[in-house]
Structures are given as C-alpha cells and as structure tokens.
User: Fold this.
Amino acid sequence: MRDLGTVVRGIRTPIIKEGDDLATIVTDAIVNAGKNNNIEFNDKDIVAITEAVVGISEGNYVSVNTVTQDIKNKFNNPEELGIVFPILSRNRFSLILKAIARSTKKLYVLLSFPADEVGNGILDEERLYKSDFSKDSTISEEEYREYFGDWLHPFTGINMLDFYKELIEAEGCEAHFILSNNPVDILKYTKNVLTCDIHTRFQTKFLLKEYGANVLGLFDIMNAPINGSGYNEKYGMLGSNKSTEEKLKLFPRTGQALVEEIQRRLKEKTGKTMEVMVYGDGAFKDPVGHIWELADPVVSPAYTSGLEGTPNEIKLKYVSDNKFADLRGDALKEAIKQEIRNKEKDLKGQMITQGTTPRRLTDLIGSLCDLTSGSGDKGTPVVFIQGYFDNLASE
Assistant:
C-alpha cells in the first residue's frame, strides 16, 4: 500500500557559472541523487531548473550602459522621457532605472498606487481611504510628500519613491513623479513613453499608442544584441535581475533546447521519460505583505510537452459528501478510487471539479518549485518532483 503522494526534493548542484554545461550538470545531479538516496525513478517524474542558473550558464548578461545605448537609439536621443508603471524593486528595476536616467535629461515617472502591479506598496492604504484622494485620482509629487511621504515599506523600511528619485538624480537626470492608475496621464508631460509594466504590457502600450504617444515597452529594449551583448528576443528587459551594480542578467533564451536535451539524457541514463521545465517566480501571493510573486513575464519560459495543459481532477470532498455520503472507511476509499478511474477525460465545468485549482500545470509546479528552492542560500537550483500526476487510485 502506498503511503506517500507527491514528494518534492531540492537538488544541490555545483555553483553555476557562465559557460557551464548545464544539461550535464543537471542530469548528473539527478542521477547521483538517485544513487545516493535510493530513489527509484519513474516516468512522469519532474525535473525543474530555476531560470537564474539558465541565464547565468548561457551568459545572457547586459551592461547598464548598453541598455542606455538601446534606449537612446530607439527614442532618438530623447531630451525627456516618461516611464509608466515601473515595479518598486531594488533587484528587479533599479538598474533598469539607472539606464533610463542615463538616456535622457528629464524623466517623468508615473507610479501606480497604492501599490505596483505585483503588490509592492508606495503609501499607507488606510490613510488613502481616509483622505480626499481615491484610486481614480492623480496625485502630484508635492501632494504625495504632504500626505503620504513618511510611509516606509514594512519589510524593507524604504520609501521607494525617495529611493528612485535619488537614483535618477545621481545620474544627472531631472526627476519628476506622478501617482496615477491611468497611464494616459503621462502624456500631460511628454509624448516619449517607455511602459514598464509586466502583465498588462500589451494593453498599456496599445492604449498609449492610440493616444498618440511615441511608445515602447521594456520588452522592446534589448530584444536584439548590441555588440555581442545578451538579449531576449521575446521579453527584452522583462524578467531581468541585478547581477552587479553595472550589469543585469536577462531572462533566459535557450530554455526550450535545454529542457529537451535534459529529458533526452535522463531517458538515456535512467530509461524513464521525465518531464523537464525551467521556472522563475512562482506566482503565489503573500497574504501579509500582499506581494504577488511574479515579477517575471511568465512562470515557466520552457517546458517539455508532458507539462502542457491544466489538472484534470475531481474534488474528493465533494464526492465523499454527496455521491458516497453513506459510506465510511475502506468502502468509501474504494468507491472513490473507482470514481477516479471512471472519470471522464475532460471534466471542466462539472460540479465534481469545483474547488480544484484552475491554473496551468507549469504555473502550479513553478509555485511548488519556487517555494522549495527559495531565492537565497539553499543551494538547490534544481527541484525533483515525484508523484505529482498520481492520485488516490494510483498504485
């Protein structure tokens, strides 16, 4: 009788550096972990690799000055520039902002409020609701400082408007801030606009273009190499991270070839067809800090075909309380097992699925992996999952 369902393990690897053969490192790490820990491999086991080490190994880096060069080229050396909806992050956006500040003499920054799109706050929400302002208001920098300027983020102890202003001015650029949830408000100050939002990027760019802006998105910046630099043809600067004070690591480009190669090698070494994916942020939300953990453009930029789709599950609680309300113990368990075996291939929309998670497999698994590996010093950039596709009826 099986006692375990899904089992998740963080797998330690050597420290990954630029130019490393990541396919070999990951394959060897999984095989060695199996030998050293008596793990029996199965078809449909999942191997997941964090996007950070994929980007590092492929050398997908770009300097701040190269980003500046691309912005200048694409906006034709702008005297002034506006940016819309940047996220409030020292790791994710500060170096991008430094590059933008170097590209122009005057910068207008339109911030959404009370928080950015991934939940990083910029003001006290309770004070906002008690004020004469609403989420439909436009708040000037002077008004912000008068009513909300003493606010510090509860986790970091930093006011990001102050942090960003100091960063911009340190580059010799004039900085002006506006708080608004309407991106079109930036056009009161400049027609040259760089949209910086992640998940609403296409809508924001389309809207501003409709209103006559000379507009690009962060996904249009560094979407091609400059003098051999890193780049990402699909996401540009989206998904980038701070590497040093003058260098950014971009979202990986070669993930699809990597996951397919690792799948092939694992099949060769273990005889099992495992699924492989690259994962970034897990897309879960912190109930206390209200941070939505998805500053990357997608959870998984590359995965093998067996991870396509969404779960096809029934809700055990619903079946137990309704169809088999009079059964208990082993009889109930066997009846539910048979129900699982008999379930239709597509149960979407049926009451029996109510309460199951309506997310893509890669998003669900990415959340599991991100929580397992963390973003600090665990040293497990590879996650190995067994039993994810099993259910109560699996033997």
Notes: The longest helix spans residues 255-270. The two ends are 8 Å apart (CA to CA). DSSP finds twelve helices and 14 strands in the chain. The CA atoms of residues 85 and 111 lie 5 Å apart.
